[in-house]
Amino acid sequence: MPEDSLLRPELGALAPYNAGLTIEEIAARPGVTRIAKLGSNENLHGAAPGVAAALRDAAAATHLYPDPQGRRLAARLGEELGVPPGWIVLGDGSEDLLNVIARATLRPGDRVVVLYPSFPLHEDYARMMGAEVIRIGLTAEGRIDIDALAAAMAAPVRLVMIANPMNPAGAWLDPAALDRVLAAQRRDTLLVMDEAYVEYAAHGDFRSAAESLTAHDRPMIVLRTFSKAWGLAALRIGFGATNDAGLRRGLDLVRTPFNTSHLAQVAALAALEDPAHMEAAVAATVAEREKLAAALRGRGLRVLPSLGNFLFLDTGRPSVDVAAGLLDHGVIVKPWKQPGYESWLRVSIGLPEDSAQFLAALQAVLDRPA
Predict the structure, then answer these.
(1) In this structure, what is the dihedral angle of CA atoms 144, 316, 359, 46, given to the nearest 10 degrees?
(2) pTM (2 decimals)?
């Protein structure tokens, strides 16, 4: 970056976020008749029917600013988690809150512990603020290295960022490992538990950190989103729950005053009125995930165990090339580009017909000479 640049020097180490391809970008390709959009971990079963009706009713108020605190939604979320509404902060998706947390807490030279391979924004927002990122990799079996994580947490660090389950690997902390992390946290460290895929993890050996939030005596924030299991990705709404009053005040100072729209708040409330719809979609997705994982392993591919709505698999060749080949068959996935994982793909779990299309396309691509 030139010395006379108007931008902060820390931005020179960042790359644009790979938001994934859209259906419109692929639809114009010759020979593509159906698109399987499996690159963004969306819930292809869709939102609850009541969401659309609630949005139609709310459209008459689009000329008014939304409630900046989202009080109705915060109260409902507090009831769901068993915490005071004042502990809830809303975000334009949970990744918005990752940005807000970084800007509110990090200083140049601070140390931040993340899991690796990581959701890139966990690292990018820390580096944006001049912090040093410490990566905790996976074990040879593709699990979270809890020994390395606990050792890193023993040193003075400003922030520990844990995606549970992990994106993209799908790995998770079982209840004993979560207890070990909570016990290892220093009193001068903020623990951020990113639980974007928590609804899918509930079908496995898993316990949410939110269950420990009230009793935990060190600063913690648990992040959730409506973009995944609840099917509201287009509306961009997530939230955090924190047991630290100082952090809560700081987040309000840093976030934009109206960072969640009225329509997004209304949609989230409507979705929460129909948990059975979400639970049915999650159950179908989990069943399809295990079916797809078995099919991929049956073809000799390494697939990591996952509690998310996605799988992480090693193609044995550059994943960028594999993903490009899949596009010719109308299949969108996400090739992973972080060092050490350049042959790995993350594929979202969609409908059974999406899985069938992906498997056929993948076989065709891998059958080509490397």
Answers:
(1) 40
(2) 0.94
